[in-house]
Amino acid sequence: MLTEFSNGVELSKICNESNKKIWEIMIEREVENSQLDREAILNYMKENLNIMKNSIKKGLYEDVKSVSGLVGGDAKLIRERYENEKTVSGKRMNKAVASAVAVLEVNASMGQIVAAPTAGSSGILPAALVTVGEDFHISDDQLSKALFTASAIGYIITKNATVAGAEGGCQAETGAAAAMAASALVELLGGSPEQALDAAAMTIKNILGLVCDPLAGLVEVPCVKRNAIGVANAFICSDMALAGVKSVIPFDEVVEAMYKVGKSLPCELRETALGGLAATPTGIRIKKQIFSKK
Ligand code: SF4
């Protein structure tokens, strides 16, 4: 039997009938759809995890600056504060936020990251898993499996909507990444496939309508900080789902709504840098400065 699914309802049904988690079903699907065996696929995901960890480390401890000079160094600032002071949202949240910022800063400085699902949203999933992995002493093997949970959610969103800011706004891009992270955290911490889908649904609901408006068209401002908010969103929604809170609107319907909202956004708010923050006086001034340097 082929392990194929197109949406959350089908995935949930397969999980229930086989009494398996989402990550197990996703690995089976990958084995069926590739020329690779299970071990090779797991090793491939472990390599991704390593790249994620390295990008976090680089952003947290090295001097990273984007080519435009707009972003860089904030991950270090956040780390130094949570290491030395009490923080409003707690050490774990700050560690995750710093890690998400770190990856985006590395991306903006042309460093190596894993696009999960895109470069612009590449900080959220690593930050969520690596932070929780470290704090809960979870093995790389388990973290890699959680990445398959995230992959299944990303696959469904891609199949039924989009993960591109240019098509669906930032709600699609960082929203998808946050939904992937939230579902992965749920399964990593012992939650059910239904809870993982609820977490993913709640995560996207929280930022429905978020526009894509990068200054000068660069994946820097506001992208870095939207990754910080993305991991916070994932943390909160995974905790709510694990506590038994359900999404009133099912995951598949949330994804459909997100896609429709994205399609109804004017082109100025879909990565063209013509609207939103990009069109503010400061956004326009920064764009002129960057392009006059070239
Ligand atoms: S603002 Fe646009 S480019 Fe930046 S992270 Fe969001 S979707 Fe990506």
Commentary on this structure:
This protein has 294 residues and is mainly alpha-helical. It has one domain: 2-methylcitrate dehydratase PrpD. Helix content is 66%, strand content 0%. It is built from 13 helices and no strands. It has helices at residues 8-18, 22-33, 38-61, 74-84, 91-108, 124-135, 140-160, 165-168, 170-188, 193-206, 223-242, 251-264, 281-293. The termini are far apart. The chain binds iron/sulfur cluster. Residues 120-121, 165, 170, 173-174, 212-214, 219, 222-223, 226, 271 line the site of iron/sulfur cluster (SF4).
Number of helices: 13
If you compute it from the alpha carbons, what radius of gyration comes out, rounded to the nearest whole angstrom? 18 Å
Question: What is the CATH topology classification name?
Answer: 2-methylcitrate dehydratase PrpD
CATH architecture: Orthogonal Bundle
Strand content: under 5%
Helix content: 55-70%
Bound ligand species: iron/sulfur cluster
The major β-sheet equals:
none
Number of domains: 1
Beta strands, count? 0
Quick one: CATH class?
Mainly Alpha
SSE blueprint and pairings:
Elements: H1 8-18, H2 22-33, H3 38-61, H4 74-84, H5 91-108, H6 124-135, H7 140-160, H8 165-168, H9 170-188, H10 193-206, H11 223-242, H12 251-264, H13 281-293
Helix pairs in contact: 2-7, 3-5, 3-7, 4-5, 5-6, 5-11, 6-7, 6-9, 6-11, 7-9, 9-10, 9-11, 10-11, 10-12
Iron/sulfur cluster binds at residues 120-121, 165, 170, 173-174, 212-214, 219, 222-223, 226, 271.
